[in-house]
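Here is one chain, start to finish.
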Amino acid sequence: MRRTSIGSGCRRIWLATAGEMNPLEEIKDRFRAALSGSVDDVEPHVAMVKPAQDPRHGDYQANLAMGLAKSQGRKPRDLAQEIVGRLDLSGLLQPPEISGPGFINLRLQDAWLAARLQEMAADNRLAIAPPAKPRRLVIDFSSPNVAKPMHVGHLRSTIIGDSLVRLFRFLGHQVITDNHLGDWGTQFGMLLYGFKHHRDDQALQADPVREMLRLYLLVRDVIRPAETDEDDDASAVKYSDTDIAKAKAILEEVRRETARLHAGDPENVALWQKMMPWCLEEINRTYRRLDVVFDHTLGESFYNPMLADVVASLLRKGIAEESEGAVLVAQGGRPSLIRKKDGAFTYTTTDLATIRYRMETWQPDAMLYVVDSRQALHFQNLFETARRWGYDKVELAHIAFGSVLGENRRPLKTREGGVVELSSLVDEAVERAAHVYEQSRQERRERGEEVPELDPAERKRVEEAVGVGAVKYADLCQNRLTDYVFSWSKMLAMNGNTGTYMQYAYARNRSIFRKGGENEDRFRRSPPAVLLETPQERSLAVMLLRLEEALADAAADYQPSAITTYLWDLAKSYSGFFQNCPVLKAGTPQLRDSRLALCDLTARVLERCLDLLGIKTVERM
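Its structure:
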């Protein structure tokens, strides 16, 4: 077993690359040996060994001969033939083929595939070996302002962050999650003002969470004229001078309430302490719906007592300097402000205190911040300051992502022009899933297919799993760095690369075992021999064994879309197998067991990968 190390400036590898269970890594090892002594640095050439795009050209393809031949002044086909002659094929590869100008086409031995699948089936972890040196990571994600409802802008951070947590924990690393809440800002000034001037005591006693939400929305609407650009022709609403003057006066009151809170005013601090559990319950309700859990929820208020010492430390070390009453860190011609002229601290100060606290408390090897790409400059400056401050041994990474857009390719809004609340988005997803589910049931009945009858409770679970899963998958199947267009019709489609299709593929797979009266446990306790008699069986076998490659790619690039890409390829391979290879009516008992084993292993991989994306599977749809 070869363990891949992590070096600066190279692609991170977060798992043990167990050669005999990872075809790509095993093949690369064979090429390393074949190239050893003939080139100074084999890695750039070994990196050109990749899965074949067209199965007619084999399972893998090595396109390294052309580049090497050019540097050595040789013919590529001759050099390819020489490399193949030195390549150790034993127990792994069929004799390679050389095509075109020097492409080396590689095909795995069927016996090797069958043996590895049996090992994979017998292992609870699907033969994913834990790392030799597990790392400790802090993953910072979601981070809403708690005095107001979570909105669609929190969607990507929450589900991308949760997926990375699930991935790294499955791979065997220690992950500490921290939801760095905004619990100390102007939004609490809005609540304090609303509580003092507009609260309904009867409503507060009956449902404090809903009353906090009402007060926030009320004050937000009252001060909106003060925050609207009247010169902007695109503004949907124009306000009178009286409305704007009134709004500005109330906004100033809100700011004073915030300042009193930060200054330690006993009344405001007591009210803040009273409100926090109510506000937290509102966001926790959404987290429960999304099946997202945090180890720690340390907001800005937690770090507030530490901020003065952060500034003093940076001044002592000569990293920060005073300028006209303020304190800033100069770097790259664009200084970072850490204390304002009025003595107030900034987000940068809080983030530096957070880094110091995490290092002293958890001693992580890496801190990952899952925050949208618009904050790139902030994190660039933050990390540089932290390194100068002495935290230069920990990996600090900004896991950036793009925006969620409406079908007009602008930020997703409600029909009224407001920001879409996350709870409303989930509600609508589940409602639409119920409609799609019923439509699919009717269509399948008309085609003469057997459609399970679900009791109301089970049907509700299916609709919730499909609705939430559709939203998550639609986001996670995108490259996280790009914006994407939010489309209900696409995300809830019963075919194509959607969460709904993956859940249906899993449920259809499980129905085979119910129909055949088979208990899948026997295919795990003592897996039968796998027979690869058709191209479809073999294609599915190769795809199953690419699981570790997909997880390695996802971890190396912090990119959950590598998992969805793999799932789509697996689902297509399974569909071809399902259509062409009778399972319960296979020609012999041995072939029946082999195909059932392939089905069960496919279901387990589907279930595992969907779980890594935070998506639930259902046994019947």
